Amino acid sequence: MTLGYVNFPMDQFGKPGAPQCPPINYGIDGSEELADGEPFMGATLTSIFSEGIRSATGLPDLNGACFYSLTSESYAYSQGLRQLDVIRKIKGTVVTTKESFWIVYNQIPQGSVIDLEIYRNQAPMNLSIIKKSGTEKLNDTAGVKYTGSDWLPRDSSTGGAGSYNDDINATTANGDYFEFTFYGTGIDMITSKYSDEGDVDIYIDDVFQQTISCYSTTRLYQQVVYSKMDLPSGVHTIKGVKKTGSYMIVDAFNIYDTYSESGILNDDASEITYIGTWHSSEHRGYGDYGDDVHYTTNNDDYFELTFTGTGVEYITEKNSDQGNVDIYIDDVLQTTVSCYNATRLSQQTVYSKTDLPSGVHTIKVVKKSGQYALLDALKIY
Ligand SMILES: [Ca+2]
Ligand SMILES: [Ca+2]
């Protein structure tokens, strides 16, 4: 692995006269290697960057992403991963470099089951883990795509010190850009600010959002310079294009997936499939989740959601113009629920099932009677 640090003007990072040598890390066998580790699941993930690591893992080749360090306090450990485990496949996709791991991983919803093939004790084994829920901070090395003429990765000795994981990616060329694809409902871009940085144009899903400034008279590390929330739950791509200044720097990203954090999926979520003639009603003022519902007037119209977890709640209004709905889990009729009430009540849990075996399930709700059937939200466990 060779990284071209030597042409970088070190003085732009406040280290005039610093020796321009590549960063040194020591492999398991003591051999000198370029640093490659990045934080992941409370542990450190690396490429198989040295013969020392390859030998320690017993791998026949250099393909995979290795848990170089992993303690019993880490989330990775709680999911059954161990030190020197090498991820060889993720969801059936062969992992050659770390990049090939991140491309798959970053597009998986939080809380989902991830099927891995692990190399441990010189043999392959299968392991299913759950993608951690909550804000996930990912480093500039975690599957970010860098396009242009001048990107250079930098570590603690070449300008990355003080940044997240003591590393960054930097470019001096206007027009160079980064792209980061993730599954979630929001994202923060984290970078340093300084007087030699300028403007960056930010796009989400190829739509221009705004021009941000990374300029500051004093040097500031790990700053949130752009934040976008309230994206529909799903796969999105943030793109940043260098416009002005001597440098554009990428340090890290925070990924938000509010659906998985709360477990609540609003009726407008793209994951929910509506069959028949359903309509959206917004700004209702009745106290609905998100102030909106979907509704239909046709018997036998239905909605369904496939989810990963152990349970689901059907949350809706009750009112005098509503009747019965049939509830199916995994295509098996569970019960018929009445959504009738003499007065209107909002955010009512009219059906709850929380003892399903952990895994992938489908809830289907079919209108059977009354003038209306509604969906306000679903809560997933
Ligand atoms: Ca970083
Ligand atoms: Ca709603």
Describe the fold and architecture.
This protein has helices at residues 51-57, 75-78, 98-105, 156-160, 258-262, and strands spanning 25-26, 32-33, 38-40, 43-47, 65-69, 86-90, 93-94, 113-120, 123-130, 136-139, 145-147, 152-154, 168-171, 177-184, 186-193, 199-204, 207-213, 220-228, 234-242, 248-250, 252-256, 264-266, 273-275, 279-282, 292-296, 302-309, 312-318, 324-329, 332-338, 345-353, 359-367, 373-375, 377-380. It has 381 residues and is mainly beta. The chain has 3 domains: 23-132, PDZ domain (Pdz3 Domain), CATH 2.30.42; 137-260, Galactose-binding domain-like (Jelly Rolls, Sandwich); 263-380, Jelly Rolls (Sandwich). Strands 3, 4, 5, 6, 7, 8 and 9 form a 7-stranded antiparallel beta sheet that branches. Strands 11-14-19-16-17 form a 5-stranded antiparallel beta sheet, with no helix packed on it. Strands 23-26-31-28-29 form a 5-stranded antiparallel beta sheet, with no helix packed on it. Strand 28 and strand 29 form a beta hairpin. The radius of gyration is 25 Å and the shape is flat. Residues 1-34 have low confidence and may be disordered. The site of one calcium ion has 9 residues, from loops.
